Amino acid sequence: MKISSEPSVGGELWEMLPVGPRRALAQAAASEFGKRGYHATTTRHIAEHVGMSPAGLYVHYASKAELLFTISRIGHESVLSESSAALEGISSPDERVHALVRSFTIWHAVNHNLARVIQYELRSLEPKHYQVIAAIRRSTEALAAEVFRPLFRDAESLSMHTVAILSLGIDVARWYVPGRSPDPIVLGEAYAKLARNLLRA
Amino acid sequence: MKISSEPSVGGELWEMLPVGPRRALAQAAASEFGKRGYHATTTRHIAEHVGMSPAGLYVHYASKAELLFTISRIGHESVLSESSAALEGISSPDERVHALVRSFTIWHAVNHNLARVIQYELRSLEPKHYQVIAAIRRSTEALAAEVFRPLFRDAESLSMHTVAILSLGIDVARWYVPGRSPDPIVLGEAYAKLARNLLRA
Which regions of the protein are recorded as binding DNA (chains A, B) (predicted)? Predict the structure, then answer.
C-alpha cells in the first residue's frame, strides 16, 4: 500500500475488514463521527447511513465504543504503514523528510473524516482501547523522529520540529473541505517542500 | 490586553464577564468542555466544578449551548484582540510575522482548554451562534493574511502559508499538556522563529 501519484482514497484502507456489513458500518462510522463528533453521533445515525436498523448494527458491533476502536485502529495502522511505505528505498535525509511529510499530509487530506476521528477522539476511547492506539501512535512518532533526527544536533530542537511538522499534517483534518481545499497531492507536495525549507533554515 | 513578557493566564480573558457566578461558570465550562468535549459534558459537570447545583446553573445560563457560545465568543475575541495588540507599533514585515505568531502560539498554549473548545467545537454551535463566531474568525484570518501578504507575490502561496502557520498555533491546543510541554513563552518564541524561517525560504 503505497502513495505514489494517486492516493488510496479510502478503498484499501478498509481491506482489514471483510467486504460486507462490518466494513460498510466502519466506513459509515468514520463519516458520521467525523462530521459531528463521537458523542453527538448515535448508532442510529450510523445504521441509517447504510440503510440498516439500529438493532442490525449490534449484530456486527457490540457497541459504539467498539466501532470507534475499530476505525481508530484501522486509521492509525494505515498512517503508520503508508508512512513506512513512502520511505522505502529512500536514503537521502532530505528526500526522506519530503516523502514522509508528503505521505502524511495526503493521508490526512484524503481521509479527513477518519483523520478527525483518530486525532481528536482519543479521549473518547475506552482505557483498554486507548492503550492499543497509543502504542501505534508511539511507533508513528518514533518513525518521524528517526526521519528528522539526521538533521538535528540537539534533542530539544528535534522534538520541537517533529511536533511542528506533524502539526501541519494533522491540522489538515480540521480544516479540509473537499472541493474547496487544495487537491491532496498538491497540498502534500507543498507541505513537503515547506518542511524541507523549515529544516534547512 | 497585551502579551509582553508574561502571558495573561486566563485572568484578563474573562473580564468581559462580571466577577461572580456567571464568570466562574464560564471558566468551569472552558475547563470541562476542553477536557472531554462539549457533547460528553453535562451541565452537572460544570455546576459541580464550582460547587453549584445543576439547577443553580440555569439561573445564570439558559442552556449548555449558551455557555458554549459565551466562551467561544470570549475566546475568539481574545485571540483577535491579543493578535492586534501584539502588532501595535511594529512596522517591519518580518517583525510583524514574529509578533503575530508568538502571540497566537502563546495564547493557544496558555489557554489550551478554551482553545480546544473554540477550535474544535465550531460544529457544536447553534447556527445563529456560529454566524457570530464565524465573523470574528474571518477578522482574525484577515489580520493574519495582512501580516503575511507583504512576503508573497501570489495569492495561492499566501493562502497556503497563512493556513500552515496558523495550523502550528492551533494544533498546540490539541497536544499541550501543562508541566510536560514547553513553557508557553519558549514555545511562542520558537514557533515565531520557525515561521520567519519558513517565510524567508
Answer: 42-61
Residue carrying C-alpha cell 458491533? A61
pLDDT in tens, A23-40: 999 999 999 999 999 999
Q: Which fold has domain A64-200?
A: Tetracycline Repressor; domain 2 (1.10.357)
A99-110 residues labelled b (16+ CB within 10 A) or e (exposed): bbbbbbbbbbbb
Q: In this predicted complex, what is the ipTM?
A: 0.91
Task: Report the chain A residue with the minimal C-alpha distance to residue B41.
Answer: A39
A35 to chain B nearest CA, in Å?
A: 8
Q: Which amino acid is at A13?
A: L
The model's pLDDT over A84-102, given as tens digits with 9 standing for 90+, comes to 999 999 999 999 999 999 9
Q: Does B186 touch chain A (CB under 8 A)?
A: no
Taking contacts as CB-CB distances below 8 angstroms, the residues of chain A near B174 are 119-120, 167, 170
Residue ranges of E strands in A6-154 = none
Where do the domains of chain A lie? Answer: 64-200
Residue A151 contacts B, CB cutoff 8 Å: no
